[in-house]
Amino acid sequence: MNAADGVLNFSKDLMELTGISKTGSIVTLWVQEPAYSNSNGSLDYGGVVLNPGYNGTSGTILTATFRVKGAGTGAVSFSSASVLANDGLGTNILSSSSGGSYSFISKKAATPSPVAKTPTPAPKLAPAVFSSTHPDQNKWYRNNNPVVGWSVPADVKEVRIDLDKTSTVPQAGYPPTTAEKSFVGVNDGVWYVNVQFIMPTGPGPASSFKL
Q: Looking at the 3D structure of the chain, how many domains does it have?
């Protein structure tokens, strides 16, 4: 063959021609420089191969690069095309010119999976113990019938109280509304009233009040 020309049409709503390359082309002389129009969706070209022409089973005329504009099915086809033999007669030896149909799929950003947040439990408060009869923990009082009290939060399930010679975790359970405790006939010496709230999430820290 010694000449080839054609008009290539493409789906202009989905495809945009961004460049043409003649690198590696078998054409040695362009009688019509390749030109394209994205608004029309077309590419025109025309070139010749100088004597002795080109003899082969396949060859590259030019390379066109497209950019996909959106999702859908795009098509490329020839509205006209010819390949002329180097026989002095200009015989068109092109038997067929096939195009192509292409499916374009938009690339969606991955949706992040929701992350389950573990609720932070409310802090467990130690009882704020006080005494109306023995207000100062560092003083000795003659009264051996001490009374101690505390404020009870709304969600307390149980109040634990004991009177011990040491500061410890109480074991005796009382109703959750218990906000005061009286002791009668406490022997002389250092004693501790130990109080603890049992919350829905478990036991809270114990408080100790020295008598």
A: 2
